[in-house]
Design a protein that fits this description.
Elements (H helix, E strand, L loop, with lengths): L2 H19 L8 E8 L5 E8 L3 H25 L7 E6 L2 H18 L10
Helix pairs in contact: 1-2
């Protein structure tokens, strides 16, 4: 595992812990799915997903925007890096797309239009 990959995982875990311990009542439906810290360690893109619909997504966006300074400060105190990266929060749509794909497959299966092919011998 490369140095940047280890830092990405460390920052992801720390932000997730901060959200779910310190801000648990407000961030209960938010999941930090991935973090991409730039190689110079000065900025990080934080991907998150949210349980619920559009309202919950908007609430999460507002909350993360509001908490950004506190999260960065706590990250700097808890994770020793040369620089504490600035944080950019980005909604991760991959979970939503995956759920939609599974729903379509389930619908096709219910209609009998989706059948697995038997492996050839």
């Amino acid at each position: 595992m490369s140095r940047v990959a280890r830092i990405n995982e460390l920052v992801r875990r720390e932000l997730s812990d901060l959200l779910h311990i310190r801000y648990r009542d407000r961030a209960v439906g938010i999941t930090v799915t991935d973090v991409n810290v730039m190689p110079d360690l000065r900025s990080a893109r934080v991907y998150y997903s949210v349980l619920g619909g559009a309202k919950e997504r908007l609430d999460a966006e507002r909350l993360l925007s509001e908490l950004k300074p506190q999260l960065r400060s706590s990250l700097g105190k808890n994770v020793i890096l040369k620089y504490t990266p600035s944080l950019e929060f980005v909604f991760d749509e991959s979970m939503e797309r995956g759920s939609r794909t599974l729903a379509i497959l389930a619908e096709l299966d219910a209609k009998g239009e989706f059948r697995e092919e038997e492996p050839k011998k």
